[in-house]
UniProtKB/TrEMBL annotation:
One Gene Ontology cellular component annotation held by this UniProt entry: type II protein secretion system complex
InterPro entries found in the cross-reference section: N_methyl_site (IPR012902), Pilin-like (IPR045584), T2SS_GspH (IPR022346)
Compartments where located: Cell inner membrane
Natural source organism: Craterilacuibacter sinensis
Domain General secretion pathway GspH as annotated: residue spans: 56-168
Protein name (database record): Type II secretion system protein H
Record bears the keyword Zinc-finger: no
Superkingdom classification of source: Bacteria
Amino acid sequence: MCIFPRSCLPAHRSPAMKNGFTLIEMMIVLSVLAIGLAIAMPALTTVIEGNRMTGTANQLLGDLYLARSEAVRSGRSVEVCASTNAQTCSNLATDWSQGWIVRAAASGTLLAVHQPASTFQASATWSSLRFSPSGEVRSSAGAANRLAAQTTITLSNAHASRTVEIAPYGHAAIRGAQ
């Protein structure tokens, strides 16, 4: 009678046939792997949500730079504004979580549309930013109103927060990654 399964192999088998895993060894490895995954999943979710927030902030930053460069290139004002329908500006809303658009200020021609892929909260100090042909940021109230101080758009979800800061002279950057 055999107590250990490997010692019960017939003598005529080659040594290479004796190598392998038993069912008990395989079950132990799978249970350790399952425990490890159960511990790692919450941390992985936090990383994924943080990366989504960074991606959304990078898209906003790219659209701000697109608006500024298009204003300088064309010699006409270009506007970036919060939008709830991806067609027109939501002039009274400072909530950018529904998306935003980039458009030529005079003609209203859409240059870029962004609708968020994930849920997040977004708040801004302005509903609309207008880049002048010189690259400076103007308020939506009028072309002559150069912003006196930097403006911010804060994007956040349960796991991360990113703030896009726009200086009066048009430079934008992401700050406060948490």
